[in-house]
Amino acid sequence: MAKILLEMKNITKTFPGVKALDNVNLQVEEGEIHALVGENGAGKSTLMNVLSGIYPYGTYEGDIKYDSEVCKFNDIKDSEAKGIVIIHQELALIPYMTIAENMFLGNERGSKFKINWSETSDLARKYLDIVGLKDSTQTLIKDIGVGKQQLVEIAKALSKNAKLLILDEPTSSLNETDSKALLDLLLKLKAEQNLTSIIISHKLNEISYVADKITVIRDGSTIETLTKGVDDISEARIIKGMVGRELSDRFPKREHNIGEVMMEVKNWNVYHPLYNERKIVNDVNIHVKKGEVLGISGLMGAGRTELAMSIFGKSYGENISGQLFINGEEVHLKNVQDAIKHGIAYVTEDRKGNGLILSNPIKINTTLANLDAVVNRHITIDKDKEYKVAVDYKEKLKTKTPTVEQNVGNLSGGNQQKVLLAKWMFADPDILILDEPTRGIDVGAKYEIYCIINQLVAEGKSVIMISSELPEILGMCDRIYVMNEGRIVGELDGQEATQEKIMTYILQSSGNKEVKNG
Amino acid sequence: MDKNHVLGFLKKNTMIIVLIIVLAFFAWRTGGAILLPMNVSNLISQNAYVFILATGMLLCILTGGNIDLSVGSVVCFVGAVGARLMVDGGYPVWAAILIMIIIGTAIGAFQGFWIAFVRIPPFIVTLAGMLAFRGLSNVVLNGLTVSIKDKTSFVNLFGGGADCYIHDIFGNGALNLTCLVGGIVAAAVFIFVEMSGRIKRTKKNYEVENFAGFLAKVIAITLVILVFAYKLAQHKGIPSVLIWVLAVVIIYGYITSNTTVGRHFYAVGGNEKATKLSGINTNKVYFLAYTNMGFLAALAGMVTIARLTSAQPTYGQNYEMDAIGSCFIGGASAYGGIGTVPGVIVGAVLMGVINLGMSLMGVDANMQKVVKGVVLLAAVIFDVVSKRGGKLIAKN
Question: Chain A partners of B274 at a C-beta cutoff of 8 Å?
């Protein structure tokens, strides 16, 4: 048996109100490729952040044993000194610097006052050759594709004498050929340099291709570790491990009273705002009915948020094409004002970044999307009325705060989410698009938000719920669309849907493209 | 009052407390000269342009810490055009005023267009404006001084010349009764507004601050108004420029705190993305901020040439810095979204008092600049650090 390079023992990491990791154990042998799988939010990235020192020693419980000594990393520099290098999903390269400059950023060759450029490019060349990248070291990062950028990241890691490479979703933005090349490179580095890697991925076919061992994480706990050649590592087996939780009574019941089609989207296409050739939403056709909770399921990056925002007055994307019907009539929404006027509300997934003004009190946030409703004589804000509105919603949604004069930044995540919901409920829309409405909030607050959703549809409104949490989608939705890589890849009735069915739709449409095309 | 209350009170009113301390310090060092009626009156006349420009600058800063560097040059340019129109063009005063306002607003709109709709950084656009309009002022004036001494109606209207005080309708005693009556009326209106607001809120069972605090605040402000009016009454009465300043402060104070447009400025500075997704046209907010700045620069331009009874190519230099400094000292956030008109006025008065006090003490003009710089830096350090919970060094 090979030497154990890394052992993470009983790792527990709590964020205010949430236990992200609960007694996680991970063992990685030297020279193996170890895959980490699990749903969004299962805790994979948190675990890797603990390992790489992004969450420093002391902010978590448990031990990290690396190369047979206990490690106490204070920051990412400490872990890199030991040869643990993490490559994040969003690449951290600077577009207007050359490949060589990027590779040695923060690790410059030469002295403090004089960078040795010839050593820089010679070394860069050496590692680029190892990863098989033929471009000049003087090429600017912006001029090479994402696949090659990924190789630069690996070369950069190798230049830091990486012994343990952590790759977070390395192939998520690569095409088939580039993905294959990257995986083959990992196999080659393992064979030639005995490099150990941990790879986080949703693409199960890739995992069965490269991984020696697979650890499944679910809800912040390790479920099992499967070994190639010993255990069954078929996709069905892995999916079972990923989703096999019991659905308890976490969702309030409601009367189903579904009416006519409220909104319909036809042949909807959206392109990336910066990279105009990248299609983010691909020929989507969906509809939602009155009184219906419609779920859109899928992994992060599937294009769900982009779809929702492009519908919401073109607030995302370029070259948007397709038709939008509300109550059977075609509408053209040029901007957010139009969308609100036509009764659409979009409750963002990023409540701090895109939803709330954290430095302002609850009452000001509550009325922001519908200020005209608290205005007297056309221009003056009736502050008493505004106050009353905020108090009403605070009571209706059971927001926990001493007063509505409180700044939103001081509230907990769940209460912030309620303020955000209040803001859009006050705008009185017919169609509410809720993007990850329960992300990062505790179970009690989740339940209350589900109750609010039930109330809204009982009033005859339509709710579109985008969520990465499968139990939530299954527990709440009347109908579910499954989205992957910009397309709708499946539609399920809420009654007949199961986690396995949804995961299968996703994985079949992304993982097995080669098989389907071939 | 417990400890938290005291701390909260200190934090909320820091600049007012600093102002009182600074005033007391200068009263002591100048042997009370700074509180002489003439000096109180001068404080207003000398700093009128700062009050006006700082109010406009606040709107720009609210949108996200954006500043307008061009205001000093625009003040000079508008003044230059106005002086030429009146003196060489023979235009009547009212026409000159109208043209000056149109020109100022148009300059603001021009800069606002590039900033708001094309999204050129405000620093660049207004730096360009600062250079260009300084140059154009020189061109308009041929590098010379144009005197408007004989345009007395214009000069008096905007607070210049010897006769720029509101006439005493009650005769010509040593004490200007009109001014005193004005002060009493203002104090009465203030008390009425505060009281009726409080009664209305109590009736509807809304939250109100505790009565002792409320009473103390009302009495303090009423006293300030009365003492201020009494001082002015002892020195010729109300300077006409005070009317302009009050109008600007009251109107913009109202707009920023009580209207939807005002709310939009704060929202954009607080979180532009969230504001956009709430259906507010953020481009328009930026455009309004800079167009308005041009408008107020025109008003400040008129005040400036009236006070100096001439137009010169060097007028208005560093005015933008006075305005920006007042905003930050007055509690506006360098990141936008926070700041009030009353706060900015306190900031401007503080700067004015420091200027005047040091001049009376005979401090060298160069050292005055040093002191002003230190005060500005200290105020912003205080703001940033106190928001970080008292930690001086930012987390790396």
Answer: 348, 353-357, 368
